[in-house]
Amino acid sequence: DQQVKQNSPSLSVQEGRISILNCDYTNSMFDYFLWYKKYPAEGPTFLISISSIKDKNEDGRFTVFLNKSAKHLSLHIVPSQPGDSAVYFCAATYSGAGSYQLTFGKGTKLSVIP
Amino acid sequence: DSGVTQTPKHLITATGQRVTLRCSPRSGDLSVYWYQQSLDQGLQFLIQYYNGEERAKGNILERFSAQQFPDLHSELNLSSLELGDSALYFCASSARGDTIYFGEGSWLTVV
Known about the structure:
The complex is a heterodimer.
Chain A: E1 4-5, E2 10-14, E3 19-25, E4 32-38, E5 45-51, E6 56-59, E7 62-67, E8 72-77, E9 86-93, E10 103-104, E11 108-113
Parallel strand pairs in A: 2-11
Antiparallel strand pairs in A: 1-3, 3-8, 4-5, 4-9, 6-7, 7-8, 9-10, 9-11
Chain B: E1 5-7, E2 10-13, E3 19-24, E4 31-38, E5 42-50, E6 53-57, E7 64-68, E8 74-78, E9 87-94, E10 101-102, E11 106-110
Parallel strand pairs in B: 2-11
Antiparallel strand pairs in B: 1-3, 3-8, 4-5, 4-9, 5-6, 7-8, 9-10, 9-11
């Protein structure tokens, strides 16, 4: 049973436009969510996170939105740049775990077209 | 560069063999995590160590084991290897209250 789902395996966006990557989760105990970016042959790189006490967190061009009632989060990238082309993973954990036992989605491959 | 170092980067071995993957965490990080990324399963949490002690276990097979040494480096031992064990194995580390940072991974191919 997949507790974290990224239903779009891929997404193509024009440079300068907004990229929206979506993630759904089923485990109500999850209270901390993270987005990672991964280039080929590299490890995942932390992008941005959000705690369940918030519904929005911004860091530069990246904004994560959390809708707890819908168990849905999204990552917005504005404006999108060709260097943003990578696989994006959504991950979740819960503070009761006492550690970063992250449950990952399967990723969405973002292609930003110049 | 995340500061997490993994060796070897690539490894090819035969079924039934045993391999050891090594990880050096970021300086000062006490927690080490192992994750497995396979084509169909995505990134899966295997095990966590904190300051030498096992802290949490995920989907780790009995044929796999890990340990964290006094200098905080960690090793993941994979034995009786099967074709299905072919995957990218990531180590990650974290400091208390911080997020986790991943190494570049060790590609294991079992033939």
